[in-house]
Amino acid sequence: MGTGTAASQRVLRTPRRQPAGASGRPLRWRQVTAIVLLAVGLVGVALLHVWLRLQVVHMGYVLATTSKLQNQLQQENLELKLELATLTSPDRLEALSRSRLGLRSPEKGQVIILP
Fold first, then answer.
1. I want to staple 97 with a disulfide (CB 3.0 to 4.6 A). Which of 83, 92, 103, 111 is the partner?
2. d(Cα 78, Cα 88) in Å, to the nearest integer?
3. CB of 92 within 8 A of CB of 86?
């Protein structure tokens, strides 16, 4: 019975864990590495988010400036069209031709109609 007891004690014994120094280091090293990689990834995502927000703000300023310039150019275009219409009006051209060049309307005999 003595041998049976020793055998049963061997079977009932739970295996002892190895000291933390032998196998604990690689597991702990993996955990630290995983945590560091996770932290670096989170910092990278945060920096990417901040950079994208800065780009959005910058593009907003560019868009506002461009829109303001477009409005100014449209206004200038309208003013130039009005000036062109004023300068090329038939009444104005007739008045200028009479005053500066001394032109007048043709007489009946001055107009020749070609066949």
1. 103
2. 15
3. yes
DSSP one-letter string for 44-89: HHHHHHHHHHHHHHHHHHHHHHHHHHHHHHHHHHHHHHHHHHHHT-
Q: What tokens were used for 90?
A: 């038939």
- List pLDDT tens digits, range 50-76: 999 999 999 999 999 999 999 999 999
**Residue 106 φ/ψ region, left for φ over 0, alpha for ψ in the -120 to 50 degree band, beta for the rest:** beta
**Model confidence, pTM:** 0.52
The Cα–Cα gap between 34 and 37 comes to 5
Q: Which residues contact 92 (CB under 8 A, 6 or more apart)?
A: 86
Closest alpha carbon to 105 in 12, 25, 97, 33: 97
